[in-house]
Specification:
The complex is a heterodimer of chains A (385) and B (137). Chain A is of the alpha/beta class and 385 residues long. Chain A contains 15 helices and eleven strands. In chain A, strand 5 and strand 6 form a beta hairpin. The longest helix of chain A is centred in the C-terminal third of the chain and has 17 residues. Chain A is globular. The two termini of chain A are 19 Å apart. By secondary structure, chain B is an all-beta fold. Chain B has no helices and ten strands. In chain B, the strands form two sheets. Chain B has a five-stranded mixed barrel. In chain B, strands 2, 3, 4 and 5 form a four-stranded antiparallel β-sheet that branches. The chains are: A alpha/beta (385), B mainly beta (137). At the A-B interface, helix 5, helix 6 and strand 5 of A face strand 6, strand 7 and strand 8 of B.
């Protein structure tokens, strides 16, 4: 396998852009990635595009807009993990020697495809019963508080932290601070989670251009190495725990091994904070702290921008936004920006090793009515200078 | 018009046969490895064995709960969703039948019993009848 580097990144701001189609969103992100890398559209050998909702052939439609001549194009749906699944596949194609220069993008226009909560097929028992994503995480939050003695204030601090960070990210959907009191007093969505405990829906796009590390210098002296790219999908598991993800644990564990690092070596992370409680659950699953210690980790300031191990400096899904298919690629864009030292006011000092965890795909057992861990896709990427 | 009432899903539960009768909740047990499954399904996801339909307990404990407050075309909020731990060792999603005035009494670990009731509408605008659990009086 060849080592792979990211040589260019680009984003379309996340937010509400009902007037724009996926072509408009994707075009801007891809053109920025071309400009950033110095790669010309006719050098692209393959395109991987993550998108989750109600569109067809988004990759070709955007490639057409930016002048990429017809090349193999893969459109990848894997729910909230679509973007990182696209990146993982692109990485595989380059690492294995099939292609040299590949464009990865993630895009979503939720303003045009949905209203309200993220849709899960109406045929599954969970949805027939009226259980949507915020209620799943409401169930987890109550159990987390009961089992570990955590407080709702600890859980909601995740939203305060990530909104603080979002203020420093020009690409974030929300660039406004919120106080703990504001999070707690915002509209209740599914007890104990309020509106500000939940990520918003929105529109946006992110893009990255990758190539083998040994030719990266032809294009840029700001290349960032992909030290690990791991995808884990869970299957049936008896009595799967609710508050801990074995998929995330396994995915991060394989990535640490592949990159020859351990959690203590990480300088900055982007993790899948679709709801405040989720960020704490993933802290524990990927080994940033012991089980049940997530609340303490955030309360003690460890994962804040000024802390020892900043998590979601971009604002995360809670403040940067979560246009589903774009999220996994946007995490990579943020980490590349951090590792290059180009993150401006939200720059993490001396960032050398960074990790992204993108989760998605409601566990099929849970969709059918049996309670267990929530997501069954856990994609981990570790990047370094 | 609008009198249609349909079961939320086949092979899941049986409403009481008489006004004083009891509802029944069903799951599956693998004939090969003994895994208890919910809901019943044709083959065991653990070992691919054939699964027999079994009756699950009508008593359980509240493992966690949430109160859904999002308006959708199918359901009128607020309504309570729970995870119910059954003596068979499995945890299932269920509606919890509690009056809004009693939401304050919801407590993890509380004893629950099986019930049946209407929970909302399906996409054809038919009333949907589901199993649910309610606090033991």
């Amino acid at each position: 396998m060849r080592e792979v580097s990211v040589i260019g990144v680009g984003m379309h701001k996340f937010g509400k852009f009902p007037e724009k189609g996926i072509e408009d969103l994707g075009r801007e992100a891809c053109l920025k990635a071309f400009e950033d890398s110095g790669v010309e559209p006719n050098e692209i050998e393959a395109v991987y595009c993550g998108l989750a909702l109600e569109e067809i052939t988004p990759g070709q439609r955007i490639a057409y807009e930016v002048g990429i001549p017809g090349v193999p194009t893969y459109n990848i749906e894997n729910a909230c993990a679509s973007g990182s699944t696209a990146f993982h596949n692109a990485w595989k194609a380059v690492a294995s020697g099939v292609h040299d220069i590949v464009l990865v993008m993630g895009v979503e226009s939720m303003s045009r495809t949905i209203s309200g909560v993220i849709p899960i097929p109406p045929t599954v028992l969970m949805v027939k019963m009226g259980v949507y994503a915020p209620s799943l995480f409401g169930l987890f939050a109550h159990r987390y508080m009961e089992e570990y003695g955590a407080t709702i204030e600890q859980i909601s601090l995740v939203s305060v932290k990530n909104h603080d960070n979002g203020c420093l990210n020009p690409y974030a959907q929300y660039q406004k601070k919120v106080t703990l009191e504001q999070v707690r007093s915002s509209r209740m969505i599914s007890d104990p989670l309020t509106l500000l405990d939940c990520c918003p829906t929105g529109d946006g796009a992110a893009a990255a251009i990758i190539c083998p590390s040994d030719i990266a210098k032809r294009y840029t002296d700001r290349a960032i190495k992909v030290k690990a790219s791991v995808m884990v999908v869970g299957g049936y598991q008896s009595d799967a725990p609710l508050l801990f993800s074995y998929e995330a644990k396994k995915s991060a564990g394989m990535a640490y091994k592949m990159a020859k690092v351990n959690p203590k070596d990480l300088d900055v992370l982007e993790v899948h904070d679709c709801f405040t409680i989720a960020e704490l659950m993933w802290y524990e699953s990927i080994g940033l702290c012991e089980r049940g210690e997530g609340g303490k980790l955030i309360e003690e300031g460890v994962t804040w921008l000024s802390g020892e191990l900043p998590v979601n400096p971009s604002g995360g899904l809670l403040a940067k936004g979560h246009p589903i298919g774009a999220t996994g690629v946007a995490q990579i864009v943020e980490l590349v920006t951090q590792l290059r030292g180009e993150a401006g006011q939200r720059q993490v000092d001396d960032a050398e090793v960074a990790m992204a965890l993108n989760m998605g795909g409601v566990n099929p057992g849970l969709m059918a009515g049996m309670a267990g861990n929530v997501f069954n896709v856990a994609n981990t990427h570790i990047l370094s200078k | 018009m609008g009198e249609d009432v349909v079961l939320i899903q086949e092979n899941l539960f049986e409403p009481p046969a008489t006004p004083l009768g009891k509802p029944h909740l069903f799951g599956g047990k693998c004939k090969l490895c003994g895994e208890i499954l919910f809901p019943w399904r044709q083959s065991c996801p653990k070992c691919r064995g054939e699964v027999e339909k079994i009756e699950l307990s009508s008593k359980g404990k509240l493992y966690s709960y949430t109160i859904a407050r999002i308006s959708t075309p199918m359901f009128s909020p607020p309504y309570v969703i729970g995870i119910v731990e059954l003596p068979q060792g499995i945890k299932i999603l269920s509606r919890i039948d509690v009056d809004e005035s009693d939401y304050g009494k919801l407590m993890i670990g509380m004893d629950l019993e099986l019930a049946v009731g209407e929970i909302g509408l399906n996409e054809k605008r038919q009333k949907v009848l589901s199993y649910m659990f309610k606090p033991v009086e």
